[in-house]
Specification:
Elements: E1 10-14, H1 18-21, H2 59-62, H3 65-76, E2 92-96, H4 101-110
Parallel strand pairs: 1-2
């Protein structure tokens, strides 16, 4: 919503898609090129070993989307995720590399008044 001075805030955030950063045993959430994945299309096993992030300590923990998704929300929502005061939240949020939008981000962020397609 517009503030008293007719301004609004925008956040751009790269989620780092799970399909591009997951370990070798994780099923991808979207189709990728045959050269990077064995099998065909959806649900193929990722052989790229954490998307080439070989300098990250404990990538199986740091890049695990099931763990990382809550920290991503905390950063996106400015730590206000547990507060009732949403006045400091960005008015517009542009997310990039999102392969769990409909299954995770959309339902959770709708609780904070965000809508998107």
């Amino acid at each position: 919503s517009l503030k008293a001075d007719n301004s609004f805030s925008v956040m751009q955030f790269n989620i780092l898609a799970e399909g591009l950063s997951s370990g070798p045993a994780v099923e991808t959430a979207f189709p990728v090129e045959q050269s990077a994945i064995s099998g065909t299309g959806f649900g193929a096993i990722n052989e790229n070993n954490f998307g080439g992030f070989d300098k990250v300590e404990n990538p199986e923990v740091c890049l695990d989307f099931q763990l990382r998704r809550w920290r991503l929300l905390e950063v996106i929502l400015g730590g206000n995720g547990l507060d009732d005061d949403c006045s400091m939240l960005p008015d517009v949020i542009a997310l990039e590399e999102v392969d769990h939008y409909y299954s995770f981000f959309r339902p959770v962020m709708s609780k904070f008044g965000y809508a998107g397609k």
